[in-house]
Design goal:
2 helices, two-stranded antiparallel sheet, 18% strand
Length: 195
């Protein structure tokens, strides 16, 4: 009986570690790493939105969102347009009115130029241009130019209508259907002769 035991012990010592290693779990989160970002669950992602640099301290804060004179102009003469804010020029003579219309998405707006006393000067953006990012609208230091971010408007454009072509008048002697004329089966070839 001991003889059988001596033979079984080495076999058991070999089989036991194999069985123990087979029972190891593979769901260890420390060893598994996703190969692509799409494999990471959304609840495991964390985002932190902060500016890269702090704004300059001497930058004038834009406390008033709109000039009262331009606000009155929009309330009385343009009730269908919503004034979002105004951007005053550094020289204090003009202002850009940023406003939204009812037929455009809330993320886009248009720009008009006004004097600071509320008189309309001109439209800045055409209807085919959608302006985005209100905070990016800015005047140059000498008040001669301004900058903004815009893109081609996504509004539906009317499709072109086909021209109303009049048929050519038919002459009485002309046949309505052209007749087929017999032609050569092969294209003519130029013959070259050295004699």
């Amino acid at each position: 009986m001991l003889r059988g035991f001596h033979r079984a012990v080495p076999v058991l010592l070999l089989v036991f570690p194999l069985l123990a290693s087979a029972c190891k779990t593979t769901s260890d989160s420390q060893t598994l790493r996703p190969r692509q970002l799409r494999d990471v669950p959304a609840n495991k992602l964390a985002f932190n939105f902060q500016a890269d640099v702090q704004p300059p301290e001497n930058l004038a804060s834009d406390e008033a969102k709109s000039l009262p004179a331009i606000q009155r102009e929009f309330e009385s003469k343009r009730p269908n347009d919503a004034l979002l804010r105004t951007v005053n020029s550094p020289d204090g003579q003009r202002a850009l009115a940023l406003y939204g219309t009812a037929d455009e998405p809330a993320t886009t707006f248009r720009i008009d130029l006004y004097s600071t006393d509320g008189n309309f000067i001109r439209n800045v953006t055409p209807p085919t241009l959608a302006v985005v990012f209100q905070d990016s609208v800015a005047w140059s230091a000498d008040s001669s130019m301004f900058a903004f971010v815009g893109r081609k408007s996504s509004a539906a454009q009317p499709s072109p209508t086909p021209l109303d072509l009049q048929p050519e008048p038919v002459l009485p002697s002309a046949s309505p259907v052209p007749t087929a004329t017999p032609g050569p089966v092969f294209a003519p070839l130029a013959v070259f002769s050295t004699e």
